[in-house]
Amino acid sequence: MVKLGVNIDHVATLRQARGEFDPDPVLAARLCEQAGCDSIVAHLREDRRHIQDRDIVLLRKTVKTRFNLEMSLDAGIVKMALALVPDQATLVPERRQEITTEGGLDVLRHLKRVHRVSQALLKAGIDVSIFIAPDKKQIDAACSLGIKTIELHTGQYARAFADRSAIEEFAQIKAMTLYARQSGMKVNAGHGLNYENTFAIARIKGMAELNIGHAIMSRAVFVGLKQAVSEMIAIIN
User: What is the pTM assigned to this prediction?
Assistant: First the structure.
């Protein structure tokens, strides 16, 4: 059965817009777990635009399922991750100007740095995943570093789905999931998945977990967070 990881960044985004205390992403994580999700995802960005240091400290203490910290290769962020020891660290690219993560991490381009960071995290007892494009070269690069888990970027698929032209992008994700699985890797996926386009991705053979944030938080505005998570779990199942 495909698992669901809920990204709570957008709860923190709403809090930071006011610069006060509500809504609390830590409480949001608790509600998501009560609704049945399998992990909590939070991206500690270098500019702290949403999730704050306080959040990840409390999440590490209170998350009862699995805490997946999304993070860049920045030395300061790596230092925090090593001190925090989340259940999993997902290495992602990061640009200060971007609204959201725009693509997968170029493992080939940053091979030595990714290797250095991933080894440090693994030695600390942290499972490591890399967020990459559904591309053979990137999968091979991750595999060469001994990485056992990848998360395929589904952004192009999501955009194409909205334009009713997602056949090629879906086929690529399906093929790369099979390719990575044959290499002995665990395959997750995420970015842009919502209540319309998730059904097909969840049915790809070998898919382990889908990480979804914006769509669930948007739905929660109208039906509540527990209900929004429950509805997504129903689609995945």
Answer: 0.95
